[in-house]
Write a sequence for this structure.
């Protein structure tokens, strides 16, 4: 009833899972990700213990293939289970029980495992793998959602569409650096959830992304005039002309806070081009 990908970014060490299904709130059931440890997708007549027990085994140094064996061997219903696991070193394994509903199967490569059941065809996971491999150089969240979009376009869950989710973890990440949770997004009930997840990821990138300060643009006279023109529709009484003075900077700072972009810009005579483009739109 689900197709998913678990993966590790070889450059950053980020770990993540993207999943979609004709099932409500799939993000509450299938994925488990822990920074510095691994990512698990447990699906197809889900055994809820697979996620915490599997993560504990990964934390203790057990390899993904051995984790699968230790989870499924004592499970009398292992024939209907499906699992994908990747660890912090990039080792991966995918398991599909012999009685999972057709079409069901998986693909594994260095740093990723892709799996699905009740799919339109084997083309779904093949398309996901191609998109994943073509996405080298993208941030992990973008790469995972790109793979999910490819599987969705190839037919996805043959019963239809309902929900999708994305989790990415990084050591030292999270709001204030406290949780490791780099991205945690869900579309719980929607007629077209995968594009909805893509939209949420774009919003997440706008709010929580960062442009290197070396790439920020100076607020020269021309840029100040454009900022002033955009803000005058929001700030009654803001003069039509003038340099980037205290009044204009204060107005810009207030708008930035209202838009939740204070992590991208907080004063000065240079501005993140993403913030500027968002204002001018």
């Amino acid at each position: 009833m689900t197709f998913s990908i678990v993966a590790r970014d070889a450059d950053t060490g980020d770990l993540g899972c993207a999943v979609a299904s004709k099932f409500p709130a799939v993000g509450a059931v299938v994925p488990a990700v822990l920074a510095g440890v691994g990512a698990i997708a447990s699906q197809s007549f889900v055994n809820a213990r697979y996620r915490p027990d599997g993560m504990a085994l990964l934390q203790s140094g057990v390899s993904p293939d051995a984790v699968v064996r230790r989870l499924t061997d004592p499970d009398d219903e292992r024939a209907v289970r499906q699992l994908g696991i990747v660890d912090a070193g990039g080792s991966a394994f995918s398991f599909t029980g012999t009685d999972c509903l057709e079409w069901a199967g998986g693909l594994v490569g260095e740093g990723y495992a892709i799996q699905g059941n009740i799919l339109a065809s084997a083309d779904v996971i093949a398309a996901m793998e191609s998109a994943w491999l073509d996405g080298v150089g993208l941030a992990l969240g973008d790469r995972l959602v790109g793979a999910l979009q490819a599987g969705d376009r190839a037919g996805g869950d043959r019963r239809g569409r309902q929900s999708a989710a994305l989790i990415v973890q990084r050591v030292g990440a999270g709001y204030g650096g406290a949780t490791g949770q780099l991205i945690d997004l869900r579309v719980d009930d929607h007629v077209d959830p995968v594009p909805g997840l893509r939209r949420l990821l774009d919003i997440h990138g706008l709010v929580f992304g960062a442009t290197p300060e070396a790439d920020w643009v100076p607020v020269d006279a021309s840029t100040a005039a454009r900022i002033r023109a955009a803000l005058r529709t929001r700030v009654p009484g803001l003069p039509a002309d003038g340099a980037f003075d205290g009044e204009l900077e204060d107005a810009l700072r207030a708008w930035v806070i209202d838009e939740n972009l204070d992590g991208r810009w907080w004063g000065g005579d240079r501005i993140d081009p993403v913030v500027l483009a968002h204002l001018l739109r």
Remarks:
- The two ends are 40 Å apart (CA to CA).
- The longest strand covers residues 2-8.
- DSSP finds eight helices and twelve strands in the chain.
- Residues 187 and 280 are 29 Å apart (CA to CA).
